[in-house]
Amino acid sequence: MTRPHVLLTNDDGIDSPGLAALYEELRAVADVTVVAPADNQSGVGRSRSRAVDVDDHEWGYAVHGTPADCAAYALRGLEESFDLVVSGCNLGPNCGEYLIGHSGTVGAAVEAAYLGAPALAVSAYHRADFFPPDGITFDVPATVTRELVERLPGSGVFDAADYLGLNAPLEAHGDLRVTEPLADYDVEVREATADEREQHEGAIRLESDYWDRLDQPDRYPTLERVAEPYPAWSDRAAVVDGDVSLSALSIPQEPVHAHAIDDLVATYNAEVSVRAPAADDD
């Protein structure tokens, strides 16, 4: 059987231990080319650059740009073909509709999907500390990813989905669960405190609450403390339970057709007069 060719990227940067763990694990089942950001690009979503510098790397290429830049450069700029794009392994979970859109890890997968390549975005979480503590390895999520990558060819998954979102624990885990991203976003706007102003962070704070607007004393609550609000089908519930969350997703901006839109357009055309006059037949 021909080994698949995997494009490996991320948003934590090419020197990230999460990317190194995936590289070592995936090489057992695939040919792997790394095209990853030269430095940390967390939280940039699907931002793209118009021009980037690219350096050679022992595993492939380091791009001075965003994760989406990496996917675009590899899929359109290299004289190679890829069977799958894997983005990760991200430092921290990517759960919920808003956070998924905010993630550079997912952004690379979305860019790949737009360019016609199947993709898998991989994120790692730690149930007790939210973000992985120092010294912990990415061996478990890397192994989960390899097991999935081995089973994806011929599965028909990408006949239905454009890309997959995976959240795997850093330690022993439960089942692999089919999930959906939870829609749970709000933002708090307030004046900065004196301490925040001293840090030159701006006079107004715009704080997104990715964790369901719970009144938590610290910025990143532990996952067990926020378990109650999440429905069982959601990616966040799977993460709280210590399971592996797998969401099959399509690229965004799909058109929606509704009678209300038809009615709005018809009313506008009938009632609004500030439009260019019809062309004169003469």
UniProtKB/TrEMBL annotation:
Annotated a divalent metal cation binding sites: D11, D12, S42, N90
InterPro entries, A to Z: SurE, SurE-like_Pase/nucleotidase, SurE-like_sf
Pfam families: SurE
Main location: cytoplasm
Keyword Metal-binding: yes
UniProt keywords, alphabetically: Cytoplasm, Hydrolase, Metal-binding, Nucleotide-binding
Reaction(s) catalysed (UniProt annotation): a ribonucleoside 5'-phosphate + H2O = a ribonucleoside + phosphate
Cofactor note: Binds 1 divalent metal cation per subunit.
Gene Ontology terms for molecular function: 5'-nucleotidase activity; metal ion binding; nucleotide binding
EC number: 3.1.3.5
UniProt enzyme class: hydrolase
Segments forming domain Survival protein SurE-like phosphatase/nucleotidase: 6-179
Cofactor field: a divalent metal cation
Domain of life of the source: Archaea
Subcellular location: Cytoplasm
GO cellular component, one term: cytoplasm
Role of this protein: Nucleotidase that shows phosphatase activity on nucleoside 5'-monophosphates.
Record-stated family: Belongs to the SurE nucleotidase family.
HAMAP family (UniProt xref): SurE (MF_00060)
Protein name listed in UniProt: 5'-nucleotidase SurE
Species the sequence originates in: Halorarum salinum
Underlying gene: surE
